[in-house]
Each structure stands twice: as C-alpha cells, then as structure tokens.
Specification:
Blueprint: H1 15-27, H2 30-37, H3 41-50, H4 52-78, E1 81-87, E2 90-97, H5 100-110, H6 112-115, H7 137-148
Helix pairs in contact: 1-2, 1-4, 3-4, 4-5
C-alpha cells in the first residue's frame, strides 16, 4: 500500500475512494468497506471500471490485507496465542498454544517446491476401444442410443463396445464422427 506521512494512497484524490481503500486494507471485505464509508459495492465496481489509478490502488490495498493476514498467521504459528486454563470452573492461568496447521500452510505457500503434497500414481489404465467403420457408424450410434435410453437391443452384445469421444457420443475412425464429419 502506497503511503505518505499525511495520508495513505496519496495518488487517490477523492476522499471517499481513499477511505474505501483504507477500510479494505484493514478488513479485506468489499461490502464491509463500502458500508463503512457509506457507498454501495456497485459504486466501488464502477470506480474499478472507470479509474485505472483507483484499480491499481485497490490491488495494493488487497495486497496490504494479505500481508496483514500472513503476519498474523506467522505470529500464531511461531509465537503462539495465550489461551485460558480452567480447573473446576475457575480460571487458573493461561497456556501458550501454537498452530501447526498455520505453519504448514505458510511453508507450503512460501516454498511449494519443497513442501507441496506429492502423490505418486502406480498401476495401469486400460482402454478398450473398437474403431467403427464409417458404414457401421449410424447403426452403432442407434445401438448406443438404445442402450443409454434403457431400450432392449438384441444386437447390443453382438458388435462389441463402441468408441466414445468422451462426451457420450459415438465417433468414427478419425475420432470426429462418420466419414470425418463432426
């Protein structure tokens, strides 16, 4: 977020726009920020559309909010948070609680090449396809349609499986329907 000694977002001269950006950098919510400064979220969208400088400042405000959240995640993960300890319904002290989950997410975000999930796939995938001759295409398409609509068809088992284009439609030799058409 661009700042000067006098005011944040000095490149934005309109006081309402600047107030919105300050609110957004603090809370990260468009509706909440708009409500805080007395505008509609539609007004904000219009500013984004009509004012390139405002749009850039809005992106800066969003980045400032993300940095705020990252700092809080780091603090909770490494410095911990004081939590109350009760015994017999009475407060007897506090304990420091750290967040391993936040630490894991921060490490994954900062060094994904080292901490990302690694999944290894083993095994084989088998595909059985039968290329349908162009002359047989319509007959096989009718048979497939009858099968998917639940209509009995005695020829369903006679000609074997029909090649599918992945969308449930039968395809010909070249993968584009009968005789090369789509």
């Amino acid at each position: 977020m661009a700042k000067s000694k006098d005011k944040p977002f000095p490149q934005i001269s309109d006081a309402k726009k600047r107030a919105f950006l300050v609110a957004y950098a603090k809370c990260g919510g468009v509706c909440k920020s708009a409500e805080a400064v007395g505008i509609s979220d539609r007004t904000h969208r219009n500013w984004i559309h009509d004012d390139a400088e405002y749009k850039a400042a809005f992106e800066d405000a969003g980045e400032a909010y993300v940095q705020k959240l990252e700092a809080e995640a780091d603090r909770r993960a490494t410095e911990g948070v004081e939590e109350p300890v009760y015994q017999g319904g009475e407060l007897v002290g506090t304990k420091l609680k750290f967040s391993d989950t936040l630490l894991i997410f921060r490490l994954k975000g900062l060094k994904p090449e080292k901490y990302r999930e690694r999944i290894e796939h083993k095994g084989q995938v088998e595909h059985k396809l039968r290329v349908v001759e162009d002359g047989d295409w319509y007959a096989n398409a009718d048979r497939l349609s009858a099968q998917t609509n639940g209509a009995p068809n005695s020829s369903a088992h006679e000609s074997g499986p029909v090649q599918s284009g992945g969308n449930g439609k039968t395809v010909g030799q070249n993968g584009h329907g009968p005789a090369g058409g789509s």
